[in-house]
Amino acid sequence: MATKTLITNAMIEESAIRSIENVFQTMLHEEIKFQQRVSDVEVSHGTEASEVMGCVGFAGEINGLVYLRFSKPFALHATTRVLGLTEEDIRDAGPEVISDAVGELANMAAGGFKNVFCDLGHPCMLTLPTVVSGDHLAVTTVKDASRHVYLFESRGERVIVDVQMKGGQS
Length: 170
Prior knowledge:
The protein is α+β, with helices and mostly antiparallel strands. The chain has 5 helices and 7 strands. Strands 1, 2, 3, 4, 5, 6 and 7 form a 7-stranded antiparallel β-sheet that branches. The mean pLDDT is 88.
């Protein structure tokens, strides 16, 4: 039986930072800078109008959710970078193109995060991405889950990574 390492807050933060940096470098060919950990109260009630939020869950010996939140203009920009299309092409194709791109970015971020847990002896699998778009979106904390919210900046836009998890923690 593999040894299980308890997951600390520092490990969660390091994993979130590394995962989102890798996704941005690989998929968008852009830098993203970690700003700070923020309280869930600061982002729970949807402080941004016109947001797009991708969510991917993980389940197994640990369970949780990884949310990736952008402004709609930044989601459009990210989609142009991921797909190599113009903003006009994306608008012509419809909003599902942005949803697909944001879902894939969230999936990749959650996948990088999940791989760290698996390497620590906590196997889990990812769920399919869910993407929502709207004004003043809110995230509710899952009962008995720890919540870790991180603020990043890319191209002058804020990007939020919100991780909720149960199990495996010290």
